[in-house]
Amino acid sequence: MRKIMKIVVIAISILLVGNFLYQRTSVYFLDMPDLPFSLHLNKESIVLEKGDTFRLSVFSINKRVHYSSKDFKVAYVNLNGKIFAKKPGVTFITAKVGKKTLRCKVRVIAINRKTLTLEVGEKYQFHIEGDGIISIVAWKSSDSSIAYVNDYGYVTAKRKGTVVITAKTHGKKLTCKLKVE
């Protein structure tokens, strides 16, 4: 009897510890495959640059879909599911099919300046607007001898000329035309 109790306690301990560790692995966050005839969106989360569009669609069988945006100032959606990114921020697009409601998280991002003029020796910091999460941004200057940009978006004007500062994040490429006088 004692041996059986010991085995039960060990088994319960393994299950508890395993469940705790399982939630912190990538296996826990795997998406289940969508069944062919189940209602689902083509995307559940998207990142758009200000001015971009994206076509959201619901996989269903011959059913009417009603789209709406939680914050139409950030992103607007028309009757056909086309999303228009208006200004940096986060919103949710809702697709109602009968009694079922599906949601897509939309993040609209933009670089804080599209054009900029600096004097030789001046510094400026670029950043990405609308990105509510901490993300990795790869900053690059088209000519580092005119203006150098570091990993944190700080740019230093070195000599006269024109360069393009590029920020890559979330699969998007954001640019600013920088003139050094």
From TrEMBL:
SUPFAM superfamilies named among the record's database cross-references: Invasin/intimin cell-adhesion fragments
Residue stretches making up the BIG2 domain: 35-107, 109-179
Pfam family, one: Big_2
Name of the protein this chain belongs to: Ig-like domain (Group 2)
